[in-house]
Sequence to fold (202 residues):
Amino acid sequence: MPSEESSLATRARLVEVALDAFAEKGFHGASLAAIARELDITKQALLHHFGRKEKLYGEVLQRVSSRYEALIDGAEEGPGAPEEKLERFLVTLHHEAMDHTRESRLLVRELLDNRRRAERAERWYLEGFLARLVAMVRRTAAWRDATDAEAFALVYQLLGAVTYFSISVPTLTRMYGADGFEARREAFPAVLAALTRSISSA
Fold:
């Protein structure tokens, strides 16, 4: 009988491979059979761990959401005014997005390219992360009196800036060449920080 530690390691490996598949093809495009083949197990063995595709997808999204919320924790625990904490979070998120482009692709798919799943979804795993980010924005001087809807509009635009850049690396590299892309990559964090300061300070 496998140990609890072994079972958790197996489950983590399943989620890791599923993250690749869902990020690349979306919820409906990803196939449980293909994920199982990648893991060299049967589809039935995969279902034994998760029961159904929605549960596996949910665990993948929960993992991504937890990573993002940990970044918020890190930014908020550091010193500085709310404006500095928001800036620190967004710049950190940018670097994380560049290092973990799968998560960025999954975020974009879940929020922007998921009409079929949205019609039947019972749980929104990124909702907590978005709510915390809205609250973070509303603690800044310029957005203290904003409504949740207004702060959410800003959050969406900032997330778009970060995620679009990270998932555009192959296209931008081909478009501008390796040196041209590198110059743009180096410029991005400073411009993002300056943009955040300009919109969050009263």
In short: The mean pLDDT is 90. Residues 50 and 66 are 19 Å apart (CA to CA). The two ends are 61 Å apart (CA to CA).
